[in-house]
Amino acid sequence: MYSLSQSVRMKGAAGEPIRSPFKGLTELGADFRRGELSVVAAAGGTGKSVAALNLAVRSNVPTLYFSADSTAATQLSRATAILTGDDAKSIKAKLHADDFEEYNDVLAERWWQRFNYSARPTPAEIELHLEAYWEVFNVYPHLVVVDNITNIDAGGAANADEFTFSLEGLCDYLNELARETHAHVMAMHHVIGDYADGLKPIPQSGLKGKISRVPALILTIHKEIDGMDGRTLHISPVKNREGFEDSSGETYASFSFNTSNMRLEDVAVATAF
Question: 143: domain CATH number?
Answer without folding.
Answer: 3.40.50.300
